[in-house]
Design a protein that fits this description.
With about 350 residues, the protein is α/β, with parallel strands linked by helices. It folds into 2 domains: about 200 residues, Periplasmic binding protein-like II (D-Maltodextrin-Binding Protein, domain 2), CATH 3.40.190; about 150 residues, D-Maltodextrin-Binding Protein, domain 2, CATH 3.40.190. The strands form 2 sheets. Strands 3, 4, 5, 6, 7, 8, 9, 10 and 11 form a 9-stranded mixed sheet that branches. Strands 1-2 form a two-stranded antiparallel ribbon. Helix 6 packs parallel to helix 14. The longest helix is centred in the middle third of the chain and has 28 residues. The protein is globular and about 60 Å long.
Amino acid sequence: MNRLGGIRRGGPKGLTGVLARIATSAAIALAAAGSFVAPASAAGELNLYSSRHYDTDERLYSEFEEKTGIKINRIEGNADELIQRIKSEGRNSPADVLLTVDAGRIWRAEQMGIFQPVSTEYLEARIPSHLRHPDGLWYGFSQRARIIFYDKDRVSPLQIQTYDDLADPALKGMVCTRSSSNVYMLSLMAAQIEHKGEQGAKDWAAGVYENRARDPQGGDTDQLRAIVSGECGVALANTYYFARALRSEVKGLGETEIAKIGWIFPNQSTTGAHVNISGAGVVATAPNKENAVKFLEYLASDSAQAYFSAGNDEYPAVPGVELSASVARLGLFRQDTMNLAKLGENQPLAQKLYDEVGYK
C-alpha cells in the first residue's frame, strides 16, 4: 500500500457489484465451515478509519485486497480523534468502517451515532453473541484478556485466583496497575459493576488501591517490568503484552526476566476472566456499505483471525481458530460471557467510583 494525502491506498480495481453479491451469498452458505468466500472481483473501494497501530495488520489489509479486488484507503489515528473526525464530517464523511480497540471506545462511537446496524448470517454464525452489539452496530474480531501476573518468588498462585483477591489485605503493598482513567482499567471496573453492583465494585476498587505498591502509572509492559524489578508482587495486564514478550525481545523482558513471572486467568470457577476486544462497525453514512460489510465478514474469516493471533498475539474472536505459539503458551481459559456492550454503558460510573475512593 502506498501513502497518498495521509491515506494508504492499494490494490487493483475489479469488475461488478453483481458478482460481489453472488459471492457474498456463497460465503453465507459456508459460514458454518468458517470459509470466507470472496468474489472473483469486486468493484470499488473501502475507506477504513483505524486506531489499530500495529504494523502486522498490513497483511490483513493486503489479503482482503487480493481476495476481493477492493482497494482500501486507510486513515489511522487516535480512536477519540477518529470518532470526532467522523462526527465532524457528518453526511460528507468518506468513512466506511471504524476499527478500534476496547469496548469502551466502541461504545463512545456508538453513543455518537457513528454506526449503522449490520446483520449477516456469516457474521452471526462466526462471532459469539457476547462479543458483538445486540443490534449489530459493531462486532469484536480479536480478544485480549486482562489477567493477573505475579512474582513467582513472592506470591503463591493460590492467593490470586480471582479479581477479588487483589483487594485482600494479604497483598498490601504489592499490587500494581495502570491509572484508573486508562480505558482498560475502566472496562475492568465496568465489568465489576455489572457483576457486583455499585457498592460491591466500589469496595473492590478501594481494596485494590489500598494494596498498591506504588501510585498507578505506566502502561501494561511497565507493570510487567515492575514485577521483574521487585517493585510489584502482583500486576494487572492484558495478555497480548506478555505474549509479545514470549515471542520476541521486549526491553527489560528477556527470557531470564520472563521466567520470574507467573500468570493466572482469574475467576475460572465463577464468572470467567475479563476480556476486551478490537472491534469494528459500518459507519452510518458509509458511501461503500456493501464493501464495508464484506470487510467485516473478511475479518471474521479463519485467515484473518489467524493473523490477529500471529501478528499481534491476540486471541481470535472466532472459536476454534488455531492460536499462535505465543498465545497458545498462555493457554485456553474460561472467559466472561457478559455482553461487552455493558463495558461501555458502565464506564462513566466506573470512573465516578474510582474517583470516590481516591484511585489515581
